[in-house]
């Protein structure tokens, strides 16, 4: 089984490639230095050359706040780039796995979002990722759209490491009125592998940590697991203004595809050393 991975040098890609190799797959990594996903001809040539059985599309514009003033580039990468990858997958008869986000939802529900719930993004990042989803649905017959949320991992900047680096602040305020599902990148990789190996029906899936918390609850759990003292205080979204709006509630129903977020966080911290 040949699997092409875009964004192979990113936080998710660096976990995904070895996990796929350990499962017996032959992995073809691609990143900006070897493949510009916004160049249709380059994408087509790359895919024709390697002829993958599966393409896992991790490459994305992920700076949520910057995207608000950089719509053109966010669109170019998340929409045009995804269209190019989707067309290459269709042309080579490859299964496409597209990584999406909880930010396709507006956060107005008070029960977990299901994969077929109506999307209504409230920021540019979420909008471009949803348009990417639509491109995959319109172009590909064989696809998994995997929405994830609040992602952290060993190979990139993330909330867990940010909190640890700020532990000595006299007061550390963290938002307590946004609720979601923290997800360890390794568990996202394992969830993707489950979809592929179990040959789940094509469509949209929520691949995120089970159960939910707020950012404040997430931070509190980090410090408790690590037995660190921090003067942690809850605050509101209004007290911590950001360029992009965030959904107040982006909890997703994952059909138990990933473990409880607290268990995953413990394992992440154990391996962190």
Describe what this molecule looks like in 3D.
Helices cover 40% and strands 17% of the residues. The chain has nine helices and twelve strands. The chain has helices at 11-22, 40-50, 64-67, 71-91, 124-139, 159-165, 185-197, 215-226, 261-272, and strands spanning 2-6, 26-30, 54-57, 95-101, 143-148, 151-152, 172-175, 179-180, 183-184, 203-206, 213-214, 232-235. The strands form four sheets. A six-stranded parallel β-sheet has the order 2-1-3-4-5-10, with helices on both faces. A two-stranded parallel sheet has the order 6-9. It is globular, with a radius of gyration of 18 Å. The relative contact order is 0.16.
Secondary-structure map with pairings?
Blueprint: E1 2-6, H1 11-22, E2 26-30, H2 40-50, E3 54-57, H3 64-67, H4 71-91, E4 95-101, H5 124-139, E5 143-148, E6 151-152, H6 159-165, E7 172-175, E8 179-180, E9 183-184, H7 185-197, E10 203-206, E11 213-214, H8 215-226, E12 232-235, H9 261-272
Parallel strand pairs: 1-2, 1-3, 3-4, 4-5, 5-10, 6-9, 7-12
Antiparallel strand pairs: 8-11
Helix pairs in contact: 1-7, 2-4, 4-5, 6-8, 8-9
Could you list some keywords that capture this structure?
17% strand, two-stranded parallel ribbon, alpha/beta, globular, 12 strands, six-stranded parallel β-sheet, 273 residues
Brief account:
With 273 residues, the chain is α/β, with parallel strands linked by helices. The chain has nine helices and twelve strands. The two termini are 34 Å apart.
């Amino acid at each position: 089984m040949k699997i092409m991975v875009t964004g192979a040098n990113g936080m998710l890609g660096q976990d995904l490639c070895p996990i796929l190799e350990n499962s017996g797959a032959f992995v073809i990594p691609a990143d900006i230095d070897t493949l510009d996903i916004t160049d249709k001809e380059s994408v087509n040539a790359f895919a024709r050359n390697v002829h993958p059985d599966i393409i896992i599309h991790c490459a994305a514009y992920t700076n949520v706040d910057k995207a608000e003033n950089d719509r053109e580039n966010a669109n170019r990468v998340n929409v045009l780039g995804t269209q190019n990858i989707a067309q290459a997958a269709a042309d080579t008869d490859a299964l496409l796995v597209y990584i999406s986000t909880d930010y396709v939802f507006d956060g107005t529900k008070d029960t977990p979002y299901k994969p077929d719930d109506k999307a209504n993004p409230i920021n540019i990042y979420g909008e471009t990722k949803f348009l990417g989803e639509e491109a995959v649905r319109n172009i590909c017959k064989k696809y998994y759209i995997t929405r994830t949320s609040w992602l952290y991992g060993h190979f990139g900047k993330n909330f867990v490491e940010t909190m640890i680096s700020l532990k000595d602040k006299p007061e550390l305020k963290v938002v307590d009125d946004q609720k979601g599902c923290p997800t360890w990148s390794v568990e996202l990789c394992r969830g993707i592998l489950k979809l592929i190996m179990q040959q789940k029906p094509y469509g949209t899936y929520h691949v995120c940590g089970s159960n939910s918390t707020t950012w404040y609850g997430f931070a509190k759990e980090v410090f408790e697991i690590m037995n660190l003292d921090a003067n942690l205080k809850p605050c509101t979204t209004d007290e911590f203004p950001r360029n992009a709006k965030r959904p107040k509630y982006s909890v997703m129903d994952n059909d138990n595809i990933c473990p409880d977020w607290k268990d995953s966080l413990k394992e992440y911290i154990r391996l962190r050393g």
